Amino acid sequence: MYPVTLDGTSVDCKREEIKDYFNNTFSLYEKVFEVLKNDDVFYEKSEITRHPMIFYFGHTATFFINKLINMKIINERINPDFESVFAVGVDEMSWDDMDGSNYSWPKVDAVREYRAKVKELVDELIMTLPLTLPIKDDSPMWIVLMGIEHERIHIETSLVLHRQMPIDLVKTVDAFNICPNSSSTPKNSMINISACEIRLGKESSHNLYGWDNEYGSYIESIAAFKASKYLVSNGEFMKFVEAGGYENSEFWDEEGREFLKLTKVTYPTFWVLKDGVFKYRTLSSEINMPLNWPVDVNALEAEAFCRYKSKEDGVKYQLPSEAEYRAIYNEAGLQDIPAFHESRANLNFYHYASSSPVDEFSFNGIYDVVGNVWQWSRTPIRGFEGFKVHEAYDDFSTPTFDEKHALILGSSWASSGNLIMKYSRYAFRKHFYQHAGFRYVVSNQEQEKETDLYESDELVSQYCEFQYGDTYFGVENFAIATARIASKFATNKTKALDLGCATGRATYELAKTFDKVEGIDFSVRFVQVGAKLKSDGYVAFSSKEEGELLINKKVTIEDLGYESLKEKVSFWQGDACNLKLNFNSYDLVMATNLIDRLYNPRLFLDSVEERLNADGVLVITSPYTWQESSTKKEFWLGGYRDENGVEVKTIDSLKAILGEKFELIHLQDLEFVIKETARKYQHTISEVSVWRKR
Amino acid sequence: MYPVTLDGTSVDCKREEIKDYFNNTFSLYEKVFEVLKNDDVFYEKSEITRHPMIFYFGHTATFFINKLINMKIINERINPDFESVFAVGVDEMSWDDMDGSNYSWPKVDAVREYRAKVKELVDELIMTLPLTLPIKDDSPMWIVLMGIEHERIHIETSLVLHRQMPIDLVKTVDAFNICPNSSSTPKNSMINISACEIRLGKESSHNLYGWDNEYGSYIESIAAFKASKYLVSNGEFMKFVEAGGYENSEFWDEEGREFLKLTKVTYPTFWVLKDGVFKYRTLSSEINMPLNWPVDVNALEAEAFCRYKSKEDGVKYQLPSEAEYRAIYNEAGLQDIPAFHESRANLNFYHYASSSPVDEFSFNGIYDVVGNVWQWSRTPIRGFEGFKVHEAYDDFSTPTFDEKHALILGSSWASSGNLIMKYSRYAFRKHFYQHAGFRYVVSNQEQEKETDLYESDELVSQYCEFQYGDTYFGVENFAIATARIASKFATNKTKALDLGCATGRATYELAKTFDKVEGIDFSVRFVQVGAKLKSDGYVAFSSKEEGELLINKKVTIEDLGYESLKEKVSFWQGDACNLKLNFNSYDLVMATNLIDRLYNPRLFLDSVEERLNADGVLVITSPYTWQESSTKKEFWLGGYRDENGVEVKTIDSLKAILGEKFELIHLQDLEFVIKETARKYQHTISEVSVWRKR
């Protein structure tokens, strides 16, 4: 099954196509979990940094609901608890919550039931949502497609996690058949790739769903170069292992040496050393080493091999860049699906649920240009010219634009959906394992220069300037002022929550008086700034001056005087309308410029009291700028007339909603200024209301 | 020929359809001008308040170019002079320029040549513009459709103007055939219309082009009522004339009496009194009075007739409301074209280029529900709930939302295109003539309450508050401050131009020191505020406080102290990048917050010196907030890096462009604050540069 095209002539037929594609995806994902031996295994982690499998089982269903709620396509949750506990935490990110002890995970059967309900809802939405063709990225149906492709990604990554599970916790599932062919190591050689101009990135009018990072354009001239005929096989990699490659630090860069130090690995992750002999781990079995199958490694191991081989041969080998890979793709005469049929490569589960020999699928004499295993590139993922985040998933790509996430190319046997398409772009940290290997190239292409470290996301930069930049019109820094007011009124100072923390400045400021402060924001794009200040010791951003002209600003943790505070703060992604249960026992909850940006502020206000200790204080600051794009009118707390024509103001609604459980102890105006350019500012008067729990 | 549908399955076929529709429209318009006896007649006006016909001949072609330029679909003008002189001035608006002596009109053949060039360009664009189906209102092709439908309107209104031309200046054109049938007055009677709920307004997904005022929704419950079977015929109206109806002021309201006083008319405009006998004027002939054809009158005459007939019969007759008309439409079982075939009514030039008997086209026993002549309603045009202006033509409807423009319904023999469609809505001042008559109703429907006089257009209101409202953060009123600075530096004080005058405050302020001040803005939505202050003596607007809550503010000309200044100011619609030639001989040109909103600021800067007298002063204020939505990046004056990577700042470009012809004599920052809500403001630092002509 291929991804659904966005265009077409019949809306009804398109709904049927989408429904089939959704059902196929949803049930294939459940099939993948049959690999786990029994329900107990759902509570096991295959790797220390990841969640137990039950999380992933629920997560892909919850994703549909959370995105549909956030985009205001539906108003009602199916299960608020599940949709909090299964909400985020896929990539290994320091601000995410991987400590399983914080959760009491639900029963597998309850999650199965939940998934069935989600399926029913999505099936119905597919048949009833407004739909015109072609489907554009602002269509509600785009969100359904997003949910489907998100689940396709998890089909692939769950198969990695299952393959990492102890062998006695998994079982063989007939649908996932292992390639029966293997033989000795084929001799690799180099193929000439012609010079060419490469244009990457797809048009917004492309007729398939795409993630934000795929759109835009990038052009690069590629000189002629050579690429290895085959992916590097287990047999070829074995020489590196036998030569003591893992022990020789000259083959590893700093990040690689750090990886070796932490993990102490001495051979590839899916090799199993039994009685002095290397066996090979498939999805659910251990087999004799298939020397002619591609080796599965992370990027650090692949780079180390290239350095080893360069020394052996006296020629500089490296991983291909993204553009060089496209040159190989063109040289091989490949076309995108469906012009290229799935049977011609090891992908889309057409042949195997495992790797296959590196000399089985040829394209014009170059093998496995797509399929078999992903191929690490040397290119860190970046947005193309014209990159824009999609508002429904604004942290899909941008947290990976950190020069530390390398692109993997070409898809694997476990890839389907968007993953097998020409224009898709996925990237991982270099120490991450996927069904991924590599081919090497000999090219004179210059190393791409590193993009600078300054935050260029316009909205994030604007907030960095707001929180860490200069003051204007004599108005005090708002994060400092709110933290001071909140500290003044808080009775106890053990733990505080900075909700809607944005780039995190007030979180640090609160840590001057509180023992522990948690900063939460809905968007990872924002929280990662505060987290980076903690981990890397600085905040760097580009502030707009005039038109496109920017000035770069950098503030260090020493400048800010926060060095001694950083162990007190932590940053988390979270939804204020559906916070995870472990966020509780606070002496202070500070909600800064938050309530008029929530999709349903009542959900937050009705539950905030439970998060507070006795004598706990709630501080709300807001200019009450209600807008339909953030909050449907039916959920506004003020700024409208009721059915009797009487004006409803937000402060009065706050008093009515909070009055029973809180006493209003302070009310004041507080200005803030957000710089848009050197000459244009938003100048706003927030209302600060301070409430003590009764 | 019917309007092109927006949906479809083949982009190529759609292009062909649009091209056919465009060519049909463009050539039909030229055919209409064949009614003028010879080229000399193109320089005649058919009515004192209108332009000579040459204007209208050029105008529909220029409209395409101006909209395409403004929407940045094309960059190059075909003929800047024509596109200035033929730009605006269709409705009779006090701020528009109807004084023919200001122009030296081009030769008719030159305009014919110009039209041919425009046709060639539009033909090419239709074949090459990016196009996906359905065509949405943000598609470049929408602008082409806008140009076509705009020309359809002028086909209808030009046929009114030609019919008003002296009979010896027009000739018979075969394509426009006059109905040969007429007879004695048919007896009118009343038909019962059932109670019903009426929903007006069309969906944004409707498959035909629409003007902004057609979209949104409006619901009204209609009680049962009666409507006249026929439109009022010349014969029926004759009784009113013979009864001295035009002389009896009790039948006329204040506006009607004013109309009679000014025009001194005593019978309908297309009646011709010859030797004591009424003849009837068709497009290009005078014929014996067709007693059974509908009378052509304006709304004031129609209302007077209703009052006369009410007195005669002792029953209250009135014009139908918009919703009542829809109830008649439904009762008659009508459907929109194409389900309803054009042959079934007198419209779309299918039968005649004239009216026809009122008892010829029946729909379920009600006659001429559509076609023959337009039918005046008693409903002033207003936007429906959800109304939004289209950015390419933001003054199509809003200037008519003044409670003074009444809707005409049902289309006429001269209607085609959008004009004959169910959802179209056109409105005119009540003294205006169209091919329009009326039918009367007896209904107990309450008079619609007048909407309040407060400007509700959000952007216009924001500017009213900015110019006439309160000050915030201690920042002085910007219009007053800029006018003071400009007056200080101007050497002579005879005539000033306030370019980008918005709602006109600085125009009045400059009149404190200048003998004469002209205020020009691109948008009629804005200039009508300054014009209204002059004509009606006040500015009234609604300022946003929180969410949707507003406060109404009203400032009178006395409050402002401008009573003695109002004869010195005048307001005009104009394009700073292509100003009409008659705007010249200024001692001061003040361009306030303008240059970073022009589609090509160089065009303004390169020509402004010619508008100034010796020693003339140019004052530019701007925060240089360049944005692609206003100005394509290639036309920015600053805020980018040049090909050498050097930062280009706007002030440096201004010095380079203006330096040869001007001396920079003053430079300062000047703050301004625009209120968005009671708590949210734009706080901007404009740069004021003052330049004296060398």
Could you name the key traits of this structure?
homodimer; 694 residues; alpha+beta; 7-stranded mixed sheet; 4-stranded mixed sheet; 16 helices; 25 strands
Explained architecture:
2 copies of one chain form a homodimer. By secondary structure, chain A is α+β, with helices and mostly antiparallel strands. Chain A has 16 helices and 25 strands. In chain A, a hairpin with a 4-residue loop joins strand 6 (277-281) and strand 7. In chain A, helix 1 packs parallel to helix 5 (140-164). The N and C termini of chain A lie far apart (59 Å). In chain A, 49% of the residues are buried. The A-B interface holds A 9, 130, 132, 134, 205, 473, 546-549, 623-626, 636, 638-641, 647, 649-650, 673, 676-687 and B 9, 130, 132, 134, 205, 473, 546-549, 623-626, 636, 638-641, 647, 649-650, 673, 676-687. Strand 25 (680-693) of chain A pairs antiparallel with strand 25 (680-693) of chain B.
